[in-house]
Fold Methyltransferase.
Amino acid sequence: MEWDAKKYNTTHDFIFKYGAGLLELLPKEPKKVLDIGCGTGELTNQMAELGHVVTGIDQSVNMINQAKESYPDLTFLQEDILNLSDQIGLYDIAFSNAVFHWISDQELLLKNISEHLNPNGQLICEFGAVGNVQAIREAFGRELRMLGVSFEEPFCFTSVEDYRVLLEKNHFEVVEILEYERPTPLKGGESGLRAWMEQFYAAELGELTDDQKEKLLANMERDLKPKLWKEDHWEADYRRLRINAVKL
Ligand SMILES: C[S@@+](CC[C@H](N)C(=O)[O-])C[C@H]1O[C@@H](n2cnc3c(N)ncnc32)[C@H](O)[C@@H]1O
């Protein structure tokens, strides 16, 4: 999926704003950090300001170009974490916010991370937990089924139990792993849910006619209003998984 980096920075900036809490898990002394799926580079820059030597990687050209434009003094590379080039090197810390749930091959993801970490290197990351945006996903699936459109969930949302097993199988020792609810206000008032859908389900919505899309979004707004509309904004039912683990 390609990203609209300008829209990401203005409408979906809650992603890196919430992600800033993860920075507290970083050691105080300067480390060499790989920011996986760095997006527009906002957290990469905050880590650099804390004194770390950071390389941001992202598979999206738009995101990497925006990151380079915003922070020309930092290192950003267009790279897919599942297919890294030789220039990546070794790091003390692999950091990642709001990325892992986009990746279907979690075994390969952890293997590649482990290969680019120094001995005792740390993995600090956060992404969607099981049940993340469940109400929105269920309403979307229901509407697509009514249109006769097949729907394959693009996200991989995991539980503490399953991810602990996966980490241990891939030779990481878990320092901390937790799942938590994070109700998330969406920007844009009445149109907030649409804007969110258009960012995160762009590919699926792009398959519909304008008419189908309009009807689907209107039905979703009607059905989700009792649960997710909060006086003057939509609140998405986010759940997160936060991990701090060490390479054995
Ligand atoms: C929701 S954004 C998060 C960006 C950033 N970490 C932040 O907190 O603002 C998810 C990012 O993951 C990137 N991404 C997804 N799959 C990836 C992969 N296989 N390799 C590298 N980046 C990936 C996307 O291109 C996107 O920029």
Remarks:
- Residues 210-228 form the longest helix (19 residues).
- The mean pLDDT is 95.
